[in-house]
Amino acid sequence: MAKRIPQTTPISIDALDTISYWGKVISAQRKLRGISMRDFAYRACISLNTLQRIERGEHSVLASNYLNALAVLRVMGRVFKSPDESLLKTREEILRNLIPKDDEEYF
User: Fold this and answer.
1) In the 8-state DSSP scheme, what is residue 1?
2) Given this model, what pLDDT does residue 76 score?
């Protein structure tokens, strides 16, 4: 029987760069605070191996582990921009806002 080759989902360069950046931030902030890898892994509820992989910027680590590590360091607000509320709008809301207020009475 032929060996099955697992299919992998391609990851964009932007996504890889972002994950790498998160890992660098986590590593730098942990070191800046003088927290050992073992202690930080405990605080972030992850294994030491997972923390090592995070700090290397490996993309196979769950995003939730990266986010949790950033939260433990209390740097999420500095890493992520303020949410843009326009990203949450539906197509209908966008179209509704394009109609001038004066014309609403016409319909």
Assistant:
1) -
2) 92
Token digits of residue 102: 């004066």
φ and ψ at residue 63, rounded to 5 degrees: -60, -35
d(CA 20, CA 53): 10
Q: Which amino acid is at 54?
A: I
Question: How many CB atoms are closer than 10 A to CB 19?
Answer: 19
Give CA–CA dist 42/46, Å, rounded. 6
- Considering the domain boundaries, does residue 58 fall inside one? yes
Backbone φ and ψ for 21, nearest 5 degrees, come out as -60, -45
pTM more than 0.90: no
64 in any annotated domain: yes
Instruction: Tell me which residue range forms the domain holding 40.
Output: 14-80
Q: Backbone phi, then psi, for 4, in 5-degree steps?
A: -85, 130
The predicted-structure confidence for 25-53, as pLDDT tens digits, reads as follows 999 999 999 999 999 999 999 999 999 99
Q: CA nearest 24: which of 47, 63, 56, 71?
A: 56
